[in-house]
Amino acid sequence: xxxxxxxxxxxxxxxxxxxxxxxxxxxxxxxxxxxxxxxxxxxxxxxxxxxxxxxxxxxxxxxxxxxxxxxxxxxxxxxxxxxxxxxxxxxxxxxxxxxxxxxxxxxxxxxxxxxxxxxxxxxxxxxxxxxxxxxxxxxx
Amino acid sequence: xxxxxxxxxxxxxxxxxxxxxxxxxxxxxxxxxxxxxxxxxxxxxxxxxxxxxxxxxxxxxxxxxxxxxxxxxxxxxxxxxxxxxxxxxxxxxxxxxxxxxxxxxxxxxxxxxxxxxxxxxxxxxxxxxxxxxxxxxxxx
DNA sequence: CTACATGCAAAGGGTTTGCACGACA
DNA sequence: TGTCGTGCAAACCCTTTGCATGTAG
Lengths: 140, 140
Known about the structure:
homodimer, alpha+beta, three-stranded mixed sheet
């Protein structure tokens, strides 16, 4: 929590109680809540908070790398007709997604802790980073 | 393509040229297009096609497990303040996402083919299947 | 004090739906 | 020929934005 305050201050961003409550709420949650859910929960403590403050704060926290999205970079839905086992390299900057193949990744040993959660039908590895194009662009 | 026709017929679904073109287009694409992009491309061959037919066909193809989404199950955006390395178990039926930890998965050896695509900063494994709740529900 | 954050309400944009017409089987 | 699929346009819903007010630093 102190780390949170420091980071906000050092980033030149104001420390409001809305921001603190929203961050706490997402931290506390283990169910990967959506914006609406965060909003409802935070409203128990700050009844006057608005949904758009939740959104604005969430994007702020993402810029500060304090939280992430479960989904791919903020985008519309994208589709894939490649139904053979494959994996994804995702560029964090431009959002491009490249398929790649790896027998090693196709056959990962499923941890016992996961077997208790349910049955696994598909294994997919996601590697995130900077694609070579975006790397060049940042250097140049 | 014959497999496609068979599957549609066996599913009691009509084989229209719109459906064929949309499936072909998603098959052919290697860039994980969104609905709008598929729409634009298919329109070159069927100028009168409409965007909502693209959407309806895409959901149909997903039900037939002929294509997938890059994203998590059709949903709103969800957030995660767990910034320590972790992985996800996703239930294909109810959409619940459970975190789990695995040092093996944290330290996967990156294939050389990926190193040529760009630099990897984060490795995350996604295991999809049926959670124990949904398994029970289907059996019961 | 002053710039930045918030709340409200309205706009935006991707996706879905109702309905009448058209086309596969 | 009957049923299902399509196109159109409007509805829907999540998310974003503009603006006046409030507040942290």
